[in-house]
Write a structure and sequence with these properties.
three-stranded antiparallel β-sheet; alpha/beta; single chain; about 25% strand
């Protein structure tokens, strides 16, 4: 079956127009407008508290905007929700709960999907099939992150949204994670939007950058958007975040 995005080539995958989000009197996002085209890997960067996760949640309908509009594949979210995969910033679960990776992934399968997709998908995210018999609670941080990505792509979404997916993974693990994202993008024609703090990794790995600090301060390809003046406007004079190679244990 052809993907939904293949029937709407002329439409951007995500179109946000004049988006405003407030919590009480506090402005979270102000007058945000941008488009993400089919086949792009787009990264949202900005300091803590800049509204990155709120933007993602607004696109997903988790947060309701005060004003503005959001369309996905030229349609309303409720019409295309099943075509979207999502990995949240934090996945809260009881590590003692007796559920295997196999059972966890099977719960995500849409009705009518083949069960052998579980094994195929776990291989696609770079894990061996023997991980399927393990309990979720015994996985390393890097393994769990890949399982969450596997869950988000098991139904072959057109759009994959990742909220700081490399948090807690070291530089080697993050590079391997981006290899998985590249594979999904190129081999499955999956459009990807991700939040990242690592400007150096983003500059090498994505097609489109959105610089956010409550307002949209830049948008475009990394070599155009990520200028020194723009980064200062986004992050201030503080040092732009990059991974410390020794900060985490090796965790792929």
């Amino acid at each position: 079956m052809s993907k939904l995005s293949q029937t709407t080539n002329e439409e951007p995958v995500v179109k946000v127009e004049n988006l405003n989000v407030r919590f009480g009197n506090r402005v979270i996002l102000e007058d945000i407008s941008f488009e993400v085209n089919r086949g792009d890997i787009a990264a949202v960067i900005g300091p803590n508290g800049s509204g990155k996760s709120t933007l993602i949640k607004a696109i997903l309908g988790i947060v309701k905007p005060v004003s503005g509009s959001i369309s996905l594949f030229g349609k309303h979210l409720h019409e295309v929700r099943r075509q979207i995969g999502y990995v949240p910033q934090k996945f809260e679960f009881d590590p003692n709960f007796p559920i295997t990776v196999q059972e966890f992934l099977q719960l995500a399968l849409h009705s009518g999907k083949e069960r052998n997709l579980v094994t195929r998908t776990i291989k696609e995210v770079g894990l061996l099939p023997n991980v399927l018999d393990k309990q979720l609670g015994v996985l390393s941080g890097g393994q769990l992150q890949r399982v969450l990505i596997a869950q988000s792509i098991i139904n072959d979404p057109d759009l994959l949204i990742l909220d700081e997916p490399a948090t807690g993974i070291d530089i080697v693990g993050e590079a391997a994670f981006y290899d998985v994202v590249d594979h999904l993008n190129k081999d499955h024609d999956t459009t990807v939007i991700l939040i990242s703090h690592d400007v150096s990794m983003v500059s090498q790995r994505v097609d489109h950058v959105l610089c956010l600090n409550k307002q949209l301060l830049c948008t475009g390809p990394p070599n155009v958007a990520l200028t020194e003046s723009t980064l200062k406007a986004v992050f201030g004079e503080t040092q732009v975040y990059e991974h410390d190679h020794h900060e985490h244990e090796h965790d792929v």
